[in-house]
Amino acid sequence: MIVYALTVILTLSNMLLALTRKHSKVIAMFLLLFMWLLFWGNTMNLDYEAYSSLYSNIQHGVPVFKKVNMEIGFILIMKLCTLLGLNYTGFLTLTSLCCYLMIHSTVKLYCRNYNYVYLLYFIFPFFIDVIQIRNFIVMSILIYSVRFLVMGGIKGKVKYVILLLLATTIHRVSLVYLPMILIRPEKKNNLIYCLATCSLLFSILFLLNDKEIPIFASYIESYIGHGKYLAYFKKKTNWGWILLCCLPLSSFIMIMFSKRIYHNYNRNSTITYYCDTNRKYINIMYYINLLLIIYMPLYILNGNFLRIIRNIILLNYIVYSIVNKVIDNIDIKVLYSIFVIIYILAFFIIIIIPQKEDIIMSVINNNIIYNLLR
What we know:
It is a single chain. This protein is mainly α. The chain has one domain (2-373). The protein has 20 helices and no strands. Helix 5 runs parallel beside helix 8. The protein is globular, with a radius of gyration of 21 Å. The termini are close together.
């Protein structure tokens, strides 16, 4: 009961502070600390047994590189932690700490309302991140690396690509974010509009072709290789694809309106360095959300591909926090907050609710903290 009480108290307190002008970094840090404790303190979830068994094998010197269909970077991280003398819980503690430090360094770089960002992240997709560890590491690296896209220039893009290639050694999903180097932060990206439009047209063809990818199917399967990834292409959604398509489209629509609102409230203001950085960041996120529409056929095919959008959602939260800060009309601020809440609840209801026992309950109930405090 104490864990549930802490969840409610931290959620409500951060909600009140997020929607007012009196933000509290201390309360936000308490929520982040609570999430970190829940993360490494988890003792059972859908993927726990597979990861803990792999770690145990590495710990006891069992050769795993050729026997496990898993990226080498993740195995090396586990190997490093075993050399440090850590057990599996220690591995989770150290890895998640490094990931949250990367996330927080990006949050504090672009916004001041930490309560807003961490509250939304706690609602979604925190609980999935606890289960899908490799994807969480990739998400953290991606979030950290976006600053180099905002920086722009050849040097910034090279740093972004290096970090992304590093993330690819942990999970192949990282490759889908490589096209983001095409985004030019200070210019209109007509190529991105063209790619997104072509993807939507291709999605129609994809649906008419019974969700079979014409021409490229054999090449995709040859590249992916692993049976666990190929399964994503074999197991197809029914009519649920309509809801799944709404999520990436709603992300783009929310960012589009956020960009317009921010521009309207800063049109006549003196542009400081901080405001200029925020403007570039929002512009980058606008084109990132537009660009990720190119993967619409994959969202239609299988809900597992929604992790592509899920991995940038915290970056979107930073945009909402920035925009919420600049709105000085109380009615517009309330209306904007309502739309943000509807947006995040859509993700929560469509993705989390159908599996709430396997996702939320498994994280809260099967936890070292829960066992200590009950």
